[in-house]
Amino acid sequence: MSATCSKEQSQSKKKANQLYTGKWHNQHNSEIDLSADAEGQITGVFRAGSTSGQEISMPEEFPLTGFVAGDVIAFCVQFEEFDCITAWVGHLTEVPGTSERLLVTVWHMSVHVGKQGKGLIWKSIVTGADNFVSGQRQSNTSSLKSTASFPCWKSE
User: Fold this and answer.
1) What single DSSP character describes residue 118?
2) SS3 of 10, please?
3) Which tens digits make up the pLDDT trace of 30-50?
4) CB pairs under 8 A, 24+ apart, for 107-116?
5) Which domains does the chain have, with CATH numbers?
6) pLDDT tens for residues 47-98?
7) With contact defined as beta carbons under 8 Å apart, do 147 and 107 qualify?
């Protein structure tokens, strides 16, 4: 492979990875702010929204890290104060009928159960789905009554 071809592939990959860079919001009005490098590593922050139209008390931002490869994305967030981690995996696509970018993801949230909760291991892993649309959220509340991909409680 020539150096020119390799350079073109690198530039093409960098341009594709830039499709992920920016702000995204989901159906709970949680927001992620992503930066993708040429190698496909993503970094950023997660800002929690809320469900059922109620404000929740959480720190403003949680660090986010992950990877992209073509139209595939995977990232995770440690909600340290809440003793849990959520991991998302999915695809970059478009909102049907538009050119608006869309991340269609599924997630697993695992919550610390401690020594007293050994029998609760499988109950401490929650699964769901999020669709992140490109752009900044308009509010941090949502009227949806569905399971959020972030903790709404503090562990003891």
Assistant:
1) G
2) helix
3) 899 999 999 999 999 999 876
4) 107/149, 109/84, 109/85, 109/149, 109/150, 109/151, 110/84, 110/85, 110/86, 111/82, 111/83, 111/84, 111/151, 111/155, 112/83, 112/84, 112/155
5) 3-134 (2.40.128.30)
6) 987 655 555 555 578 999 999 999 999 999 999 888 899 999 999 999 889 8
7) no
